[in-house]
Task: inverse folding
């Protein structure tokens, strides 16, 4: 049955209907093997930006034509450490044990996308940021299992010197593409530190013109009283804060110009080595960031700016398009493992191959949880619903309110919708 707005908003039988619709809406979990003629994709690349918001993806012109732009993608936990651990392990932060940026040592790095893909015969390489606090207490020479080439920030080999870190990371990545023998399948994980604040553009882009996304109407929101505590106590922004946002937005945009340029270098290297046509490339971020929206400067909250992430894919043999299907960050692990002919480290994620191949949705909702589990949320194409452990509730109709200005959790017209989403959230919680 196709779930429509009419079904979601009908007012009678809300609770009973919620149970039925929740089952219909539940994501179809479990990876499906992709039947490539060669048995596996010869080159798989993940590029993960740092604190990059969804709306700033427009700066990346090298992610224009030929890429699938997934516009309904959510990070499982909108914070660097938990978000990255969820991608690497393919599961929820409440299961990885990485619930903050200071608990990353809890992740079981003996079973990750790296160990699984290496076991399938790939050469594996990581360059750039791994996890916050790395290398923990294991020393700078420590290399997590599964990586043939390891040059992570904090490790012995990390020596950018006077080279800008964006250039340094992509130079290392391009070198891996050019030196890996043609017959060797390659898995490459590229993690620049851009555009994390304080953003630092390469010198050549320090004064460059850049077209920024518009400031959303939720910036310095006039009335936040409809939001649950503590989000309803945020003070209006000061003139100094507003001026700082203008500066930060410009630096973020110019920082991403460097990433954009170097993605072009990577694509050129793939083309020169005959790998481009057989490459699956994923560009995403570990979370976004509130830059004054709803009067806040933070991540770790369920609003779109921290939790909605860029998720662009260059898929072999498929033309670029805008994709409306719902995507979760934990699906990345399942997808790349299946592409490599490996079994994913977790069954929480969904293989997105049918979505990229033919636009066949493989999940109807993404589960999002807070660092430390103080709130839990579910996001569909149309709705965002969050429950706080303090009792607060938020419901936004993203189709008519994409900037989450009006909380409809107590709106009688959305009673049935809230019941459906609450039931689905309960079913998705790990």
Result:
């Amino acid at each position: 049955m196709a779930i429509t707005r009419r079904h979601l908003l009908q007012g009678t039988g809300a609770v009973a209907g919620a149970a039925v619709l929740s089952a219909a809406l539940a994501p179809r979990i479990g990876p499906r093997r992709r039947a490539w003629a060669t048995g596996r994709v010869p080159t798989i690349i993940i590029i993960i930006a740092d604190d990059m918001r969804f709306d700033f993806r427009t700066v990346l012109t090298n992610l224009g034509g030929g890429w699938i732009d997934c516009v309904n993608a959510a990070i499982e936990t909108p914070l660097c450490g938990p978000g990255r651990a969820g991608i690497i392990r393919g599961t929820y932060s409440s299961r990885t044990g990485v619930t903050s940026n200071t608990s990353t040592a809890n992740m079981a790095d003996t079973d990750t996308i790296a160990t699984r893909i290496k076991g399938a015969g790939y050469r594996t390489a990581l360059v750039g940021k791994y996890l916050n606090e790395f290398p923990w207490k294991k020393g700078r020479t420590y290399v997590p299992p599964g990586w043939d080439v390891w040059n992570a920030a904090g490790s012995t080999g990390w020596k950018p010197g006077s080279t800008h870190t964006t250039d340094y990371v992509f130079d290392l990545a391009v070198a891996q593409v050019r030196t890996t023998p043609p017959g060797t399948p390659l898995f490459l994980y590229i993690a620049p530190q851009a555009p994390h604040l304080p953003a630092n553009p390469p010198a050549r882009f320090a004064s460059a013109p850049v077209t920024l996304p518009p400031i959303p109407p939720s910036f310095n929101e006039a009335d936040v009283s409809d939001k649950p505590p503590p989000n309803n106590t945020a003070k209006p922004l000061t003139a100094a804060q507003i001026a700082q946002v203008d500066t930060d937005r410009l630096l973020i945009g110019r920082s991403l110009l460097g990433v954009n340029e170097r993605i072009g270098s990577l694509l050129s290297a793939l083309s020169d080595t005959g790998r481009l046509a057989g490459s699956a490339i994923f560009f995403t971020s570990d979370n976004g960031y509130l830059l004054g929206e709803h009067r806040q400067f933070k991540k770790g909250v369920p609003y779109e700016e921290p939790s909605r992430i860029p998720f662009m894919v260059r898929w072999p043999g498929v033309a670029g398009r805008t994709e409306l299907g719902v995507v979760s960050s934990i699906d990345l692990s399942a997808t790349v493992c299946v592409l490599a002919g490996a079994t994913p480290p977790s069954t929480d994620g969904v293989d997105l191959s049918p979505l990229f191949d033919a636009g066949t949705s493989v999940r109807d909702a993404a589960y999002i949880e807070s660092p430390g589990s103080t709130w839990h949320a579910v996001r569909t194409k149309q709705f965002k619903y969050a429950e706080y452990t303090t009792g607060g509730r938020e419901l936004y109709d993203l189709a008519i309110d994409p900037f989450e200005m009006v909380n409809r959790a107590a709106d009688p017209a959305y009673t049935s919708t809230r019941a459906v989403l609450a039931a689905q959230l309960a079913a998705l919680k790990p």
In short: Residues 1-38 have pLDDT under 50 and may be disordered. The first strand starts at residue 43 and ends at 49.
